[in-house]
């Protein structure tokens, strides 16, 4: 077989898928090239053998396995549907944020320093709250003293007593 | 409905591609599982059969690449696959059966893409246009793949004959 052999056209020729010009070209070549004629015969045998491979029936066992698939999927998707309920979305969002914060805390490379900063901030906050509480106490004390003075001065006025004739 | 209509077609495609009955049953089940999971992605404007075949073909080729079936042998070409057609006398039938056996065994020599096109064209008898739609390829590429596959198989058959003649 040499490079002029139209090998690429042979299988299409065998099934009648070539145009008139190509068909004539192949037929002319086949008259002079016994190796291409042999290949064409082998191609026809190959196609005939492939076509003769029968279709098999599906076994009952496989059919029952296939029928069971949608049921399996339903059971599986039930749990997924439950998790994907819209009402659970805020809960899942909060849980995600919480997990992110926890992971940031635990996987922080400067965890000790971070702890120290948090501790200091907490103490500062606690101190501030104590100061505010103390100030609030002094405010209530001074309000109490104002109340007493006010009531004492009202008593001294005695404007509700009737004037003596 | 889906199983009744398509199980035979998918099973036969898987069997011809993989060459193993047991493997084909497992693959068919996995393809149907994938189909049920992918049904939400199906575009109703498209041909359902073509979509299903494309999905099956992609799955089979991916599995083939992942597990390398080509290292395994195909099932023996047994009675299940020998269609009874004794019309040309015992000797002609014997030759024809031997050819079928040879071609069946040689399918694993072809690359997965070429094997798939040969199966769809020569075993399932689809037109080049149908195959092109199902495999999402140009018709010219399909023709070229089928041609290459047939030539490979024909040469194997020829070599076998020549070595038998020499004996």
Task: Give the tags.
heterodimer, A: 165 residues, mainly alpha, 78% helix, 0% strand, B: 167 residues, Rna Polymerase Sigma Factor, Chain: A, Arc Repressor Mutant, subunit A, 2 domains
Strand residues, percent of chain B:
under 5%
- In round numbers, the mean pLDDT of chain A is 83
Number of helices of chain B: 7
Specify the overall morphology of chain A.
rod-shaped
**Terminal-residue CA separation of chain B:** 54 Å
The appropriate CATH architecture of the largest domain in chain B is Orthogonal Bundle
Strand-residue fraction of chain A?
Answer: under 5%
Describe the biggest sheet of chain A? none
Radius of gyration of chain A, taken over Cα atoms and rounded to an integer in Å: 49 Å
Backbone CA Rg of chain B: 17 Å
Derived from helix and strand composition plus strand pairing, the structural class of chain A reads: mainly alpha
Oligomer: heterodimer
Which protein chains make the most extensive interface, counting residues with beta carbons within 8 Å of the other chain's beta carbons? A-B, 34 and 41 residues
In N-to-C order, the SSE pattern of chain B is HHHHHHH
Give the overall pLDDT of chain B as a whole number.
82
Order of helices and strands of chain A: HHHHHH
Reported by name, the CATH topology of the largest domain in chain B is Arc Repressor Mutant, subunit A
Total helical elements of chain A: 6
Question: How many beta-strand runs of chain B?
Answer: 0
């Amino acid at each position: 077989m040499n490079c002029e052999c139209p090998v690429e056209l042979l299988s299409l020729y065998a099934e009648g898928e070539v145009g008139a010009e190509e068909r004539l070209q192949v037929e002319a070549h086949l008259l002079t090239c016994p190796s291409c004629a042999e290949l064409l015969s082998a191609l026809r045998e190959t196609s005939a053998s492939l076509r003769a491979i029968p279709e098999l029936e599906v076994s009952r066992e496989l059919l029952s396995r296939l029928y069971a698939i949608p049921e399996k999927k339903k059971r599986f998707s039930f749990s997924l549907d439950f998790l994907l309920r819209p009402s659970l979305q805020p809960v899942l969002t909060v849980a995600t944020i919480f997990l992110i914060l926890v992971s940031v805390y635990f996987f922080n490379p400067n965890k000790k320093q971070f702890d120290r900063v948090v501790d200091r901030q907490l103490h500062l906050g606690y101190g501030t709250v104590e100061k505010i509480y103390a100030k609030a106490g002094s405010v209530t004390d001074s309000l109490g003293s104002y109340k007493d003075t006010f009531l004492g001065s009202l008593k001294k006025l005695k404007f509700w007593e009737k004037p003596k004739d | 409905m889906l199983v009744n209509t398509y199980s035979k077609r998918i099973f036969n495609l898987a069997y011809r591609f993989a060459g193993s009955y047991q493997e084909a049953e497992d693959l068919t089940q996995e393809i149907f599982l994938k189909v049920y999971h992918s049904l939400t992605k199906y575009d109703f404007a498209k041909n359902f059969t073509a979509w299903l075949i494309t999905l099956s073909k992609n799955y089979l080729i991916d599995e083939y690449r992942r597990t390398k079936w080509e290292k395994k042998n195909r099932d023996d070409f047994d009675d299940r696959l020998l269609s009874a057609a004794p019309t040309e006398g015992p000797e002609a039938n014997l030759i024809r059966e031997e050819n079928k056996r040879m071609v069946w065994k040689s399918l694993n020599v072809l690359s997965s893409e070429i094997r798939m096109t040969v199966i769809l064209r020569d075993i399932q008898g689809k037109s080049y246009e149908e195959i092109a739609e199902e495999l999402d390829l140009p018709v010219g590429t399909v023709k070229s793949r089928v041609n290459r596959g047939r030539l490979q198989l024909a040469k194997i058959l020829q070599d076998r004959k020549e070595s038998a003649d020499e004996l």
